[in-house]
């Protein structure tokens, strides 16, 4: 049995306030620690010292924790410093990325400005873009011709504007340093197909024109051209022309841009359109006053084209024709005889003038039934508005100048013939 007179406890905690009442106590130090007592022993009877002894390991742990706490605080400060340095590095990287992006934008913007403000536009160049070409291939072709300076920049600009799949193949006439907007507009519209320039000079017949076109356009149907022009002509809008008449003199001489596959009828249509356009510019006032139709003017113009060798004499030749018609005289024009013969001769023989033909104006009065060649605009203008002179005769000077002697009476004409013969002898 226990002695009720047990001495007072002398443990380490004797005389101290409770643990949670001590000012230096740590509330988290061993909060669950309690004396190690059995279930049948009262913890408040004579066990103070023993209880204090059993608590000592917790006090050692508290001291350890106390020593560790500064290190933990130092570790946390170090961690925060490391995190701060990491944040600083990340902020630096972000600033670097932003700077690079800004520089790239500036470079691209500068390049685009430079592309939209190119050097002075240069000379014309022809560029053919084959069917099926990619955007990069198109850019390379343009750069090779100098149309664009930077192929890659052109590709970027076209993609940016959404035209990558819209550029059309074809043959284009562009310029060196072509402005971007104008270049893209052309490529979106499509280039012209390859063409051939066919030049038909003034004064040729249908046969001669057909041969000229056949020389310029490979595989052109020359026979088909002649058949349509001579025997199966389309309707023609020319005053005084009778439908079905040969198109001699109506196939206007000019330079035509045609496709290599052009058909005879299409070429003839171009020439008839050109005739109408040019004939509309001719002042027909005097011709109509003289009861001459547009077709009559074309006949006279063809005779002028065949006779005049010098531009200044066209109106003089036309005046002689008008004057002879008014006087009822035979025209006696050698160019009409050559047409009747079907060949061009440097000099005509006596028998040539005897040829039986409605084009023999040495036998038959009036104009020839049709024009004898295709006159140009200058000859048409001379035929409609000839020089105001009274000449009835002219003869080639035969001195190499291509000019003529002019006269209004027959005796003077004979003297001029003598002079021309002397010139011819002198030049031999």
Please explain how this structure is put together.
With about 425 residues, the chain is mainly alpha-helical. Among the domains are: about 125-190, Endolytic murein transglycosylase (Dna Ligase, domain 1); about 205-390, no CATH class. About 50% of the residues lie in helices and about 5% in strands. The protein has 13 helices and six strands. It has helices at about 50-115, 135-145, 150-160, 180-190, 205-215, 220-230, 265-280, 285-290, 295-305, 315-325, 335-340, 375-385, 410-425, and strands spanning about 125-130, 170-175, 195-200, 255-260, 395, 405. The chain has a two-stranded antiparallel ribbon with strand order 1-2. A two-stranded antiparallel sheet has the order 3-4. Strand 5 (about 395) and strand 6 (about 405) form a beta hairpin. It is rod-shaped, with a radius of gyration of 56 Å. Residues about 1-55 have low confidence and may be disordered.
Summarize this entry quickly.
With about 425 residues, the chain is mainly alpha-helical.
Major beta sheet summary: 2 strands, antiparallel
Low-confidence stretches: 1-56
Helix content: 40-55%
Mind telling me the C-alpha Rg?
56 Å
Instruction: Characterize the overall form.
Output: rod-shaped
The order of strands across the largest sheet is 1-2
Instruction: Count the E strands.
Output: 6
SSE series: HEHHEHEHHEHHHHHHEEH
Q: What structural category do the secondary elements indicate?
A: mainly alpha
Average of per-residue pLDDT values: 83
Distance, first to last CA = 178 Å
Residue share in β-strands: 5-15%
**Number of contiguous helices:** 13
